[in-house]
Amino acid sequence: MPKSKRNRPVTLSKTRKKGREHKEAIVNSIKQALEDYSSAYVFTFENMRNLKLKEFREQLKSSSRFFLGSNKVMQVSLGRSVADEAKPGIHKLSKFLRGDAGLFFTNLEKEEVQRLFEEFEEHDFARTGCMATEKVELKEGPLEQFSHEMEPFLRKQGLPVRLNKGVIELVSDYVVCEEGQPLSPESARTLRLLGIKMATFRLQLVCRWSPDDFEAYREGLDLSDVESS
């Protein structure tokens, strides 16, 4: 009997796409931040951890504001050239909003901003696809840190294990990951079980703008197109 076309699954968890109104709100917020704060920075990030960033934002909310999202929307907010820039010279920041980047507006002195960003980091367990920072190898023998109930789970992660008198043991040496190689889902889960953290969430300043100055922080940045514009 053919299936009824009326019996179609309906997803109740669909979310409304962020449209033009949302983008316009971001543009307006960034333009307002240009009025409220004395300087603006572009920063990049790696191994993003939302909870840690939220804590950092909360710490600085009285003096600063962060923006993360579409680089194109942030570029439009600042202006991409002298002709459409929101403030004199601010379009220079747009050229560095690439990849995993954000904007930071603040009234803090630049020395204080540099100190805060240099000290900010969070060590955490690496996720699937992250590059291993070291080789991790388990030697043949008992894995006494795990209870016997873990044996089926460890086996699913690819570990050559067996139960011997209620103790999990490796029947041969096993390489969990190789340095410089991306982590598989199984490797990431195993490292978490072993308590080995390979990811560090960092924020790195790229450049700074103020009404009187533009400054690049990272060595090797190509400033030729910025200085000529």
Automatic annotation (TrEMBL):
Nucleus keyword on record: yes
Keywords for this protein: Cytoplasm, Nucleus, Ribosome biogenesis
Location of region: Disordered: 1-22
Origin superkingdom: Eukaryota
Similarity remark: Belongs to the universal ribosomal protein uL10 family.
Function, as annotated: Component of the ribosome assembly machinery. Nuclear paralog of the ribosomal protein P0, it binds pre-60S subunits at an early stage of assembly in the nucleolus, and is replaced by P0 in cytoplasmic pre-60S subunits and mature 80S ribosomes.
Name of protein: Ribosome assembly factor mrt4
Gene for this chain: LOC105045863
